[in-house]
Specification:
By secondary structure, the chain is α/β, with parallel strands linked by helices. About 40% of the residues lie in helices and about 15% in strands. It has one domain (about 20-50, about 95-245). The chain contains 8 helices and 8 strands, in the order αβαββββαβααβααβα. About 30% of the residues are buried. A 4-stranded parallel beta sheet has the order 1-6-7-8. A two-stranded antiparallel sheet has the order 2-5. It has a two-stranded antiparallel sheet with strand order 3-4. Helix 1 (about 20-30) crosses helix 3 (about 105-120), helix 3 (about 105-120) runs parallel beside helix 5 (about 150-170) and helix 5 runs parallel beside helix 7 (about 205-210). It has helices at about 20-30, 50-60, 105-120, 140-145, 150-170, 185-195, 205-210, 235-245, and strands at about 35-40, 65, 70-75, 80-85, 90, 130-135, 180-185, 220-225. The two termini are about 35 Å apart. The radius of gyration is 19 Å and the shape is globular.
Length: about 250
C-alpha cells in the first residue's frame, strides 16, 4: 500500500483578488491543509508585480527618462509585443543615494502581517502556516526600465535599499512566523533570451548582503523562486548554480 502523501501547495506571490484579506481567506479555505506559507497576493500597487517601480525610479532626483533611447519592448514568450517601456538613466554627474529609493516593500509587508496575524489567531489561517513575503531582486526593475550601461550603477544602490527593507521587516515581525522569497525572474529571462546582457550570477550581492545585514536570513525561512516555463538546459544550469551556493 502506498504511503499517505500530503502535497504542499506553494503560491508564488501574485493572486488576482482585490485585497490581502480576501487573498488570505480564499487561499486558506481552498488549500489550508496543504499550506506551509501564504502570501498576501501582491494586491494594490503590486498587482502588476514590479511595474510600479518604474515610477518609483523615474521620481528619483538622480534619474531621468532617456528620451533619446528606444523604449524597451516587453514581449511575451511567442514574440507578441505587450507594451513598450520608456528607458531610464542616471542623470549626468548625479549621485545615487539608497536613502532616496522609496519602494514601500517593508511597510506593505508589515501592514499585511497584521491581517495575517489576526486571521491566524481567529483560526482562518491554520496554525503553523508562515506569512510569505515575496520580493523582487534588484536586477528586476533595472532590466526592464534602465538603459543597459547604467544598470551597474543602479543595482548596488537597489541592493542596499532592498536589504534595508529586509532588515526593517526582520526587526518588526516575529522571524519564526515569516518566510522571505526572492523572485528570480528577469535574471532567468535575460539568461534564456538576451545573451547581450546575460548576468553571470543570480544577484550575488543579495547573498553577500543578506549574510552581513542585521536581517540574518538564518532567523527566518529564505527561498528563491525561479520563473516557471523555462524548463531548458539554461534553466537547469541556473538551478544548479543556486544549489551549489546553497541559496
Amino acid at each position: 500500500m502506498a504511503a499517505d502523501h500530503n502535497p504542499i501547495v506553494h503560491f508564488v506571490g501574485s493572486i488576482p483578488l482585490p485585497d490581502a484579506e480576501t487573498v488570505f481567506r480564499t487561499l486558506a479555505a481552498a488549500t489550508g491543509p496543504h499550506l506551509k506559507r501564504v502570501p498576501d497576493g501582491e494586491t494594490g500597487i503590486r498587482k502588476t508585480w514590479i511595474r510600479f517601480l518604474q515610477q518609483v525610479l523615474a521620481d528619483n532626483p538622480a534619474i531621468e527618462v532617456a528620451s533619446d533611447v528606444p523604449p524597451f519592448k516587453f514581449s511575451q514568450w511567442d514574440g507578441k509585443l505587450l507594451r513598450e517601456i520608456p528607458r531610464l538613466r542616471v542623470k549626468p554627474g548625479a549621485r545615487l543615494d539608497p536613502a532616496t529609493i522609496k519602494t514601500g516593500y517593508a511597510d506593505m509587508a508589515i501592514a499585511s502581517w497584521r491581517l495575517f496575524d489576526r486571521l491566524q489567531q481567529e483560526g482562518v489561517i491554520p496554525a503553523g502556516v508562515k506569512f510569505q513575503i515575496s520580493l523582487p531582486t534588484p536586477i528586476a526593475p533595472t532590466y526592464n526600465n534602465v538603459v543597459p550601461t547604467d544598470r551597474p550603477a543602479l543595482i548596488p544602490v537597489l541592493t542596499t535599499h532592498m536589504l534595508g527593507e529586509v532588515t526593517a521587516i526582520a526587526q518588526a515581525l516575529p522571524n519564526d512566523r515569516i518566510a522571505l522569497q526572492w523572485d528570480v525572474c528577469q535574471e532567468v529571462i535575460a539568461w534564456r533570451w538576451s545573451a547581450a546582457h546575460r548576468p553571470t550570477n543570480p544577484s550575488p550581492g543579495l547573498q553577500r548582503g543578506c549574510q552581513r545585514s542585521k536581517a540574518d536570513p538564518s532567523h527566518f525561512l529564505r527561498r528563491f523562486f525561479l520563473i516557471p516555463g523555462l524548463c531548458s538546459p539554461d534553466g537547469d544550469e541556473w538551478r544548479q548554480r543556486l544549489n551549489r551556493r546553497r541559496l
